[in-house]
Amino acid sequence: MGNLNGLSATEVAERRAKYGPNALPMPRYRLLRLIARQFKGVFNLVLLVAAAVTFALGDVIDGAFILLFVFLGAALNIFQEHKSNAAADKLKSYLVRTTTVLRDGQDQEVPTDEIVPGDILKLESGDIVPADAVVRQARELLVDETTFTGESIPVSKQAAAPAGQEIADEHRLLQGVSIIRGNALAEVTATGVNTRLASIAKTASAVQSESELTKGVGRISTFILRTTIITLLFVVAANILIDGGDTDIPSLLIFAIALAVSVIPEALPLVLTFSLSRGALLFAKRDVIVKRLSSVQDLGSVNLLCTDKTGTITENRLVHANDYLVPESRFHPLVLARLAAQHVDQRIPEPFDRATDEALSPGQRSEMSAFKLLEEEAFDPALRSNGAIVRRDDGLQLHIRRGSPEYFLEQGLMSQEQVGTWLSDEERQGRRVLGVSYDDGGGARFGGFVSFVDSLKATTVSTVEAAKLLNVAVTVITGDALMVAEAIGREAGLVSGSDEVMEAAAFLALPISEQHERIGKIRVFARTKPEQKLELVVLLKEQYTVGFLGEGINDAPALKAAHVSMVVQSAADVARETADIVLLKKDLGVIIDGIRLGRETHANTLKYIRATLVSNFGNFYAVATASLFISFLPMLPKQLLLLNLLSDFPMMAIAFDRVSEQEVARPQRYDFRALYILFFTLGLVSTVFDFVYFGLFYRISPEVLQTNWFIASVITELLLVVSIRSMLPIEKAGWPAPLVVFLSVGACVITIALPMIPWTAALFEFAKPTPAHLGIIVALAVLYLVVTELVKRPLAHFLDRQP
Prior knowledge:
Strand order of the largest sheet: 8-21-20-19-9-16-18-17
Strand content: 15-25%
Mean pLDDT: 79
Helix content: 40-55%
């Protein structure tokens, strides 16, 4: 046992040098890491290489456009995520900044990061324990360990005996727990990276989870790269074989590079950033901080949401629910329970005490006020009860005991047969029960029971229904008792049968094959320990895209493992550092709204990917094939890049497009099979029409073909966006967002104007189109829209029926 006078200044200095500050290590160079992360993806790296090659070949304008897209997208991403991280850092006032310690026999107020092992902490009601410690002296000490255990019931702590006795859990205080009642002197045993909190943080950092968005874009990037490289190698080789020694190798390489750049949807990073930033802005208006921008879209793919019960499903506030009255008792059990309550006026009153006080009627409050407290008896863990001696104005003196039902059964004050049915009913409804007895000089008498409930939030049932409409399952993972958890699950509409509720330990004891079979059918896991949360999330991830809402220190590993992790503002530092999203209000409804918003973001991103893959690859194959049959390039490199630029700006506006209810009704993920079928089918339609344009104009002159094909390509790509923005028939899809319409019309006007203006026509080597040619181009473009719609409709039905 340490010296309760505390350490000397010399000892403090020595230990601080040995153990370091009492703080978790902060991430270093976070901004630099954020910048580096923008260029880890294949897509941006390919674009940087394409820009470098384009500059090397002397095409400064085209290279600058590519870099503009890359760096604008990266800058927006960095700005949004850095701003969100800064906002999240401001929430770190959750842990107290200073605490009182005994040093050299005197009280000193010191910053929490200056505490060292061996310090003597002076703790009282409302304090948050700043380091791991052992209780040396205690008076009526109750602590809230919810952040570690998930249990919402306060835990009694006792002073450890002098040296030699084994230190048990009832003697330990862990960093981050809060003092509910009483006071204590506690000797610090571990600080900084040696605390239990730091151990959990280390476990969390070892758990890795890749963003669904990152994986999806990575697969698309790989597909585009492989297809493009194989095709270009074929085109270059075929041109050399056809032309033989007359091949203009430098011009052919420039054309191949331009063709490759034209097929790569370089605006994809920017479209993603626009979509995600819009989502993050909407989240901010609902008091939600998005730390990892891609989590906005990842939230749309969530089809299973894991959450705690306390404060999310329920109010986290006990309310008086029922009474068991004893006819021969002189006093109502609620009055007796309130007379035995202690420290109701403290900063953080014990939940039962507060609930008892709030439940009193005016008459009962008047009855209680006639009594004066003479003596308090602290909570006795062995007896599971506390007591009080009170005296009424008329001289009547009562000795009251208040505690768990088991205490009164063991004392023989009532029988199981007498109260068993009532207690079972209360337990089935998830209520917590307090019993009372009183002794007015004639011996102890049973005074009855009062029960309390942590009520559902008013919005819980409607939120659960909204989740079902979005095909999102909600699973509660809680440390509470099985019966309590089941009752809340039934009331919330999550549970319809007892087979949907299990204790976590019982579930994890099942054979692995049975775990995989049943994991998706369990809606409530009770009595869950911290390490079990991680096991459950890992199992659930095998079948679902998992969102996890936590707040405790013990939640950090599970938060890191989940596809999307969310915490509340009051969460422990380690949990908040781990999470993707921080909720300033603990409201399940905000998360469900976020899932809808994520699906809208995904739907709009998918529109861009569909449109750009079909149109770019359609033109890509047409231009590449045409180059084999004529002696000149069917479209100049600068014209190819300009085509991409003009069609990309309206496509980028897709990020702000309207989304139908049908598009958000199911979890969103990248269906690559459907994407590839769309790409090949509708891309073939696009290629056929490109060959029609080629056949009409290539005999006139190279400039006429290049100009008319350029105009036709821009117009058909923009019409494709109108068609493919929804897989519904065009007349049922609704109007695009005004911005999409405005930019599309603007792009069409600019496309037709460029060959008409002498200096731009000369810059891009266009020939002025004739009215007849423009009429043919527009007519074929409208026909292209009709054919695309006719092909799309049966295709949509086919893809919708696929598993």
